[in-house]
Structures are given as structure tokens and as C-alpha cells.
Amino acid sequence: MKGDTKGHSTILLIYTGGTIGMVENKETGALEPFDFKHIAKHVPEIASFDFEVTTIQFIPSIDSSNIEPNVWGDMVRIISDNYYDYDGFVILHGTDTMAFTASALSFMLQNLSKPVIITGSQLPIGMFRTDGKENLITALQIAADKKDGKPMVPEVSVYFQNKLMRGNRISKINAENFNAFSSPNYPPLAKVGIHIRYDENAILKREFSGHFKPHYLLDTNVVILKLFPGISEETIDAMLSIKQLKGVILETYGTGNAMQKEWFIRRLGKAIEQGIVIVNITQCQTGKVEMDVYETGRRLMEVGVISGLDSTTEAAITKLMFLLGHNCTYKQVVEGMKHSLAGEITSALREFNPEEGEALPFLVRY
Q1: Would residue 19 show up in a list of annotated catalytic residues for this protein?
Q2: Together in a domain, 92 and 19
Q3: Which CATH number is 120's domain given?
Q4: Kind and range of the H or E run holding 225
């Protein structure tokens, strides 16, 4: 399905930092961020758009390796402060932590009904052969695209190398090629060639009528624990004994399998008894955790480890921060991790019913 930009649209372009916003200093040869007020000088195609683009620039700009949760809060605040003045938002961001940012924003921007598209580049926008121009131009076009007067993609997404992908489904897979991101467990929301072809069946459909609600609360007392052959009891114990630890993303093998050493199972059980949430995520790029398939997975399930299904590590860790940040009880976190909040998992164990179990305190039901 193709969209259209009929009707005046206004897009807010937010530059946080990253390679895309760099130009070469002709005197020193160093890469420096340029003033986005003069973006038309570097991307003159913007002047021919049939929609308006306004820019906001983080000063100083932030390299994506320095992104912290408070910066996600700054992004949310900018979107919230300008939410009713613009039809869509494009965020320019470094690629290294883009998947974490996209995942976090998908949870922090509740009842989102406008496009928030994150993009960047592998080469600075001022260099020959840059991928930045195409990524920026197309992201802006998609943000402005409408059907029957409504945005085509009212969710947090990432545009890179001819594909629009759900933000909480991506991982960075390549540090060198232009095709830097993959969405292994979910199809693209749109494919871009001569035309922009939208997959309307893939785009998030929220069956709600609620007001946009920004969230800022995140708890970073979490860790990612990746298993490997030979990992020691001391290593596991050290990580699970971190003071104030509240949550663990456990990266296991295959469909959610792990070693069956008694000390390991016992230590996980002890942590769970202490109120630490442990979520099982597969190390494989494609597929999902199914702990009931093999005995090695069933043992984890028996001690209370939660299945992360087909969630990416980036989505799982930011979702856990989000749930813990809202002072959810252990049971509420379990409910939240088992069910999709923003399309981050393909299938839930069952549809979330607020009348059953532990309702989530932050969630305004759709």
C-alpha cells in the first residue's frame, strides 16, 4: 500500500548526535557536527518537500555510545512538548545504541498515534557516497505520509537502508555495511524502492481511544547475563549478588536452554526468591524461547525464570527497566514481560486482560 502526503504536514526533526550530522572541517580534516538550522545547505532536496520541516538540535550533540536513560527522557520530553503541534517526528541518532533507544521510546511513548522515526547513517551526510541523505529524506517522507488524513505509521520505527522496521524489533548487525540493522523476527513495516510500499498488516494497530501519555520512569538496576561454555559459579554469583539488583536478562542457548549444573539452577532459584526478575532470551538472532521443549529449558521454568519469547535483548532490557521503574510488583513485572506492550513480541501467552491477575499501574487500557 502506498501512502500520500496530501494535506499540509509538519514534521519536527530532532538531531541528537551521531555520524549523520557530521561534516568534515576542511582545515583540520576532523568530523564536526553542523548546525541543523542550515540543513537545507547539505540536503537541498528538503526545500522541494510539500510539507514543513522544523529542526531541534541537542547541544552539545551526543555520541550514541554515550546515550543514557536520561537522554531518552529528554527525547520523550521534546516529543511531548511538541506533540500536538506536529504530525510526525524524525530523530537523528548514532547507530551504536539506536536499537536500545528505539525500544525504550516505544514503551515510554504510550498511546502514540503519530510517527516517531529514528534514523542515522554509516557515513557522514557531508561525505561522498553517504547513506545519510537517503535515510534522512525517506524518513521525513514516511513521517509525513498519510492515508485518509491519518499517519501511515503511528508507532516508533527505524528507517535504514530501504527498510522501515519496528523500533523494538531491531538489532545492529553490521558495523561497516550500509545495511546496519536487522529485524529478524518481524517483517518490515515498509520497503522502499521507486515507491514506498507499506505493509499495513505489519504496522501496529492499537485498538484504543486514549490520550498520548509520556513516561519517564526507568530503573537501571538490571544486568544482561550471557551464558557461555565454562562460565564459572563465581561469575554467576557475583552478578546475581550485585547490590540493589532487580532484574536480569539471561541470554541462553537455542530455544532457551542452559546448563543443568545444580549450583546454577539453585542460584537462579535463590535470586528469584529474593525478588529478582530473570527473563530468558535466546542468543540466536532468529527464533524464540520455548522453555517447555527440552529438559534444559524446563528446569529454568520450574524455578521461575520468565520466557522472553522472541524479544530482542534491546527490547527486553529496556522493557524491564520500564516496568521496574514504575514500581511494579514482581507479579506485575511478570505480567508485563509476558505480554506485548508495544508490539515487541510476536505472540503472548494470552491476551492481556486487566480484569485478571496483576494490572499494570502505569497502563491506561486501550
Answers
A1: yes
A2: yes
A3: 3.40.50.1170
A4: strand 222-226
Number of domains in the chain: 2
Kindly report whether the global pTM for this prediction surpasses the value 0.70.
yes
Pair type for strands 163-166 and 190-192: antiparallel
Tell me if 3 is assigned to some domain.
no
Question: Where in the sequence is the domain holding 69, given as residue range(s)?
Answer: 10-213
Catalytic residue among 16, 19, 313, 318: 19
pLDDT at 297: 83
- Specify the DSSP class assigned to residue 1: -
Cell of 280: 530468558
Place of cell 498488516: 201
For residues 132 and 162, the answer to whether their CB atoms sit within 8 Å is no
Count each helix (H run) and each strand (E run) in the chain, helices first.
9, 20
pLDDT tens figures, 286-320: 999 988 888 888 899 999 999 999 999 999 999 99
Rounded distance between C-alpha atoms, residue 142 and residue 278, angstroms: 38
Q: Cβ(75)–Cβ(101) under 8 Å?
A: yes
Residue 351 resides in a domain: no
264 band by pLDDT with thresholds 50, 70 and 90: very high
